[in-house]
Amino acid sequence: MLPARIIACLSCLILIGGCGGGEHEDIKQWMATSSQDLKGRAPPLPELKPFPIVSYVGTNASDPYSDTRLEPEKREGTGINVPDFNRPREQLESFPLESLQLIGVISKAKGGGRHALIQVDGVVYQVTKGNYIGQNYGRIIGVTDTEVIVAETLLDPTGQTSEWVERKASLQLQEGSQSKEAGK
């Protein structure tokens, strides 16, 4: 039985060897001649131009992480409207006036005056006439049922003089909010 197995294996090898012979030589030759002209034609890489080296000296610039950047610049100016730089700043002076939203007005009984409810960053603050608000030394000069009137003090916006000037601004009650009146 062993010689029969050996004979069967040898005959298989002969048959396999015979199948790999010269068939399809014409296709192989055509592929060889066709691929002779094929060459990769990648354009050469562009020449790299070195960038000039620029040294950075940031010693005289202000620190971007300093607390002093939160306070407005205290430049000397002239005029009757010079703000008091030494007074303690109020909470709403850290926000620009445009980011503040008037959401309600409360009138207190017996001459208590009106108080405005100002919302910024999800927190509601209660302010009244005389409080400071905004980053341009704004002082509340009036509270009505629908608005808060602010007098801002800033250096001449035209840049022609170094005088402090006063500018009026207001916060309007947002549409959809209800004015809150208590104990008239």
CATH architecture of the domain at 89-172, by name, is Roll
Work out the helicity level: 10-25%
The N- and C-terminal alpha carbons lie at a distance of: 120 Å
Number of strands: 7
The rough form would be described as elongated
The helix count comes to 2
How many strands, which pairing sense, and closed or not: the largest β-sheet? 4 strands, antiparallel
Report the mean per-residue pLDDT as an integer. Answer: 79
CATH-derived topology of the domain at 89-172: SH3 type barrels
Structural class computed from helices and strand pairing: alpha+beta
Low-pLDDT stretches are: 177-184
| Oligomeric state, counting identical vs distinct chains | single chain
The Rg value, from CA coordinates, equals: 42 Å
Beta-sheet strand percentage? 15-25%
- Main β-sheet, spatial strand arrangement: 4-5-6-7
CATH class of the domain at 89-172: Mainly Beta
How are helices and strands ordered from N to C?
HHEEEEEEE
Write the layout of secondary structure elements.
Layout: H1 2-19, H2 25-34, E1 101-107, E2 114-120, E3 123-127, E4 132-133, E5 138-143, E6 147-155, E7 164-172
Short précis:
With 184 residues, the protein is of the alpha+beta class. Helices cover 15% and strands 24% of the residues. The chain has a domain at 89-172: SH3 type barrels, CATH 2.30.30.830.
Question: Could you walk me through the main structural features you see in this protein, from its secondary elements to its overall organization?
Answer:
By secondary structure, the chain is of the alpha+beta class. The protein contains 2 helices and 7 strands; from the N terminus they run ααβββββββ. The strands form 2 sheets. A 4-stranded antiparallel sheet has the order 4-5-6-7, with no helix packed on it. Strands 1-2-3 form a 3-stranded antiparallel sheet, with no helix packed on it. A hairpin with a 2-residue loop joins strand 2 and strand 3 (123-127). The model is unreliable at 177-184 (pLDDT under 50).
